Amino acid sequence: MQSTLGTRNMFFAAITLLFLISVAAESTLQNSCPTEVLKKVNAFYLQVHDGICFHFVTNEKRTHSDASRECRHYDGLLAMPKTKSINDFLTTKATTVYGVSDPMWIGLHDRINEKEFVWEDNTKLVWGNFKKGNGPGNNIFQGSFEDCVVIHPSDGGLWGDDQCERDIISIISGSKPKKKYICQYTLDIVNNTVNDAIKNKDPKVKDQQDVDQQDTDQQAVDQQDVDQQDTDQQM
């Protein structure tokens, strides 16, 4: 009997723990992902790391430009793993959660100047994770046709050069420039906090709003008095 009760208690404890984890995850998504993204994207494909909301697009493939355009549709960018921590996070989630083994687009390229890699937010590359013979170490001929970068989840998150679009070169070589991709979104935490407080009618925020409104009203009244005095003097 005691054994049965113990098993039941463990079962209910496990269910409770899973519920709490689910609630915490939902709260994290709510605080880190844009509202429009939460409305349109299945929460299963959203992950948060260091305050950045990542969307793993694993059910469709696009060229680099089209993938970038899709991310920007919700004011996002292709994922920018500028640190090992972020790169490891993306690699782990891609393989263990989504079972992705093929390469995925990230927001890095050298389209403007060969071997000068820049991120989608126009910042220069500092930390890199390129495979040998890729990136700045790529040969001139091959590199001139491969200006966009992919992350290889099945290869420990190493990066590789690839052709950005489907062109005559990709047709001849048989390469496939359409790939899965990862978007990232970053919210203004300060504005979110204020908006949430207003939404929840935080007394402190509401009081400050009342003070600001009173100041504005008083300034308007004072200006009217000044204008009226000027008019009376002119008459």
UniProtKB/TrEMBL annotation:
CDD domains: CLECT. Residues 224-235 have a biased composition (Acidic residues). Residues 200-209 have a biased composition (Basic and acidic residues). PROSITE patterns: C_TYPE_LECTIN_2 (PS50041). The keyword DNA-binding does not apply. Residues 1-25 form the signal peptide. Keywords: Signal. InterPro entries: C-type_lectin-like (IPR001304), C-type_lectin-like/link_sf (IPR016186), Ca-Dep_Lectins_ImmuneDev (IPR050801), CTDL_fold (IPR016187). The keyword Protease does not apply. SMART domains: CLECT. Residues 49-166 form the C-type lectin domain. It holds the Pfam family Lectin_C. Residues 200-235 are annotated as: Disordered. PANTHER family: C-TYPE LECTIN DOMAIN-CONTAINING PROTEIN (PTHR22801:SF63), LITHOSTATHINE (PTHR22801). This is C-type lectin domain-containing protein. It comes from Elysia chlorotica (Eastern emerald elysia).
